[in-house]
């Protein structure tokens, strides 16, 4: 299967490397030519906590190019699936300047695009920019850290679910898409990812949103790995305050959440204990974070119901104050 991965960050390298190692034709579209040259000359190397499945993909088994060449590359050789694995801040540019310029007649060559962004708002944006595309949302709890341009550390195993945020009529009209979706599921599982297709992806989007909102900003503020959130009662108590405020907003908004969601959050802290959250990584590299799409989404939901999400609003303000690049 031919798969385009837009974004050479931690998850892009992890998925790209494992899918290529499992025998798929993978192209990784990177931000910098330095990363492209590294992948082209040295290949891609993967390690893990257990170090039992350390593996490498040689340069002849994986392709790489810069993102701005994507439209041109697509015209020559379209892929069956696209994985959009950039940060939220890049979604509008990629959607409007790269993907929207693809000749609509070539879209029949692809089965769809799967979006791995944290937070909310990007699916609605992409649907408006790309009305003829089949756009999926992916929710993953895989933990990864990019060590260099062509090295990635698999910090914690998780699950990946994807599905379309579409109405019932559209779903009925596209039942024939199941075969292509199942083929992708097969390749993901063969590559070692615990994966499934979900018809309740909206519930999972909001589940992941609250998980990220409770974990990511605190790891960034305290500059600690996920597992260190469990080290003191004060840290757990702060997570709990974010959790309770978030579930109160969900209740007011009519958003479903699992009864054992708090236990799930604790479990994720343990299973990804060595992981550096994406928000902490952004802070350490002085890059803009996704806090306004994560905790900020909960603040917006609260405001729509006449509520104030004090703790989540504080997270947005504190994180945005840590970098001069925050918008």
Automatic annotation (TrEMBL):
Q: Which UniProt keywords apply?
A: NADP, Oxidoreductase, Pantothenate biosynthesis
What GO terms are given for molecular function? 2-dehydropantoate 2-reductase activity; NADP binding
Write down what this protein is called.
Answer: 2-dehydropantoate 2-reductase
Top EC class for this record: oxidoreductase
Q: In which pathway does it act?
A: Cofactor biosynthesis; (R)-pantothenate biosynthesis; (R)-pantoate from 3-methyl-2-oxobutanoate: step 2/2
Q: Where is the Ketopantoate reductase N-terminal domain?
A: 4-164
Q: Reaction catalysed?
A: (R)-pantoate + NADP(+) = 2-dehydropantoate + NADPH + H(+)
* UniProt KW Aminoacyl-tRNA synthetase keyword: no
Q: Does the keyword Secreted apply?
A: no
Q: What is its EC number?
A: 1.1.1.169
Q: Which GO terms describe its cellular component?
A: cytoplasm
Q: What does this protein do?
A: Catalyzes the NADPH-dependent reduction of ketopantoate into pantoic acid.
Q: Which family does it belong to?
A: Belongs to the ketopantoate reductase family.
Q: Tell me which residues make up the Ketopantoate reductase C-terminal domain.
A: 201-322
GO BP annotations listed? pantothenate biosynthetic process
